[in-house]
Amino acid sequence: MIDTHAHLDALEDAGAALGRAREAGVTRVVAVGSGLDSCRETLAIAEREEGVSAALGIHPHQAGEEVDLDALKELLGHPKAVAVGETGLDHFRDYAPRDRQAELFRAQAELAAELGLALVVHTRRADEETVAVLRGLDPDVPVVLHCFSSARLLEPALAHGWYVSFAGNVTYPKAEELRWAAAQVMHDRLLAETDSPYLAPQPVRGETNEPAYLVHTLAMLAEARGEDREELEARIDGNAARAFGLA
Question: Domain 2-244 falls in which CATH fold?
Answer without folding.
Answer: TIM Barrel (3.20.20)
